[in-house]
Amino acid sequence: MCNLIGLAVRQALTRRGFIAGSAVGASLIAPMMCSAIAGDGRLDTRIRLAQSSGDAANSWTRLLLLGTAGGPTWWPNSDQCGISSAVAVGDAYYLVDCGEGVGRRLQQAVSPASSRTVTGPSLRAVFLTHLHSDHTVDYPNLLLFGLFTGLDRAASPLKVFGPGRRGHMAPVFSLPGAATPAVPIINPDNPTPGTKDMTGYIYQAFATDLNDRMRDNGRRSLEALVEVHDIDIPQIAGFKSANETPSPPMEPFKVFEDDRVRVSATLVAHAPVWPAFAFRFDTDDGSIVFSGDTARSENLIKLAKGADILVHEVIVTSWVNGLFPPPRSVAEEGLLQHLLSGHTLVEEVGGIAEAAGVKKLVLSHIVPGNATREQLLPAGKGFSGELVIGRDLMQIGVGQAAASARKG
């Protein structure tokens, strides 16, 4: 569904008089109001304040919001980068998604004033919720630039976990009674590649660069520095196919564990892309859950039960409706329904967090990426915990154990 966000924006902007005559057009180009970060608004000030805000400074386990905008587009008048987050456990970092700007944001969040990089020994693993472009577009950057920023200094290869092959194509979307359009297939021998395939294709696409780096710069092969895993989904009772039951009821399952964190996953509802995962990170201090892109998902609620923090995607209903004001064509009505059914509406996300019994709800993958605070406040409806409107470079702590106390 992420691809439909970009399509909807493009279509809406071509409607005659849309920007000039629509109230939603005004919100589309309005700068996002800052929440939870004060100061003069300059990037260096925001970084400094984000690093010292709240309980993060005293916490061994921390949530880092790197980029908080959703959708494959550049949002007007917004300084929010594409979707990416990290869990820090002491000096170990675990990335979730690789949207636009992930490498630069990670550097800014961790060590903006020093030459230290985090793509070496500090970065242990990367987790991709699904393979839409807004979640993966800077994955190549992370690898290719990582070759020069420490990947070769790690004690073991960087581990990457993400969806495997879909297995067969999703059906072509068509409205009832309409003819199914003919759609070409890219890479017909492997039209739904998984994470391992995608990584291999990156190596092929940048073979000129990588071969030159090894021969002229003495760099090691990326293939030896990165260990990629397609996530194995356990057998699920009642699962028929990705097209019929993309997110059947299931129990969370373990994906990864080391001395700092245990990571579990479940399937969520983001058809037609499949598989799409939510992830839960459990540490000695507590737990952080990432929804990935999803409509309301009972699997996600089960995964997030009792978590300290739920980082959840959100889409502003009024913005979607305003993209296609009545009268709508049949095609526009279909696209509108796609957008509303494949994501979580701002009025619904609070009820999801309440059902999961989480302590803190953090909004990220925000659509539109320049939404105002007022547009996002309805996310608190039905939620008795703390609501945080996510902004790039925010850090939120879990637990109060100071890092210095853990080093011994």
User: Taking all residues together, what is the mean pLDDT?
Assistant: 85
- Please give the radius of gyration in angstroms: 21 Å
Please report the total strand number as a whole number. 14
- Biggest sheet: strands, sense, closure? 7 strands, mixed
Main-sheet strand order equals 6-5-4-3-2-1-14
CATH homologous superfamily of the domain at 2-99 and 123-128 and 250-398 - what is it? Ribonuclease Z/Hydroxyacylglutathione hydrolase-like
Spatial gap, N to C terminus: 47 Å
Helix content: 25-40%
Give unreliable regions as ranges.
Answer: 13-41, 46-53
Please report the first level of CATH classification, the CATH class of the domain at 2-99 and 123-128 and 250-398: Alpha Beta
Q: In the CATH classification, which architecture of the domain at 2-99 and 123-128 and 250-398 applies? A: 4-Layer Sandwich
CA-based shape? globular
Structural class designation: alpha/beta
Order of helices and strands: HHHHEEEHEHHEHHHEEEEEHEHHHEHEEH
Name the beta content range.
Answer: 15-25%
Determine the number of helices (DSSP H or I, runs of at least 4 residues). 16
CATH topology of the domain at 2-99 and 123-128 and 250-398: Metallo-beta-lactamase, Chain A
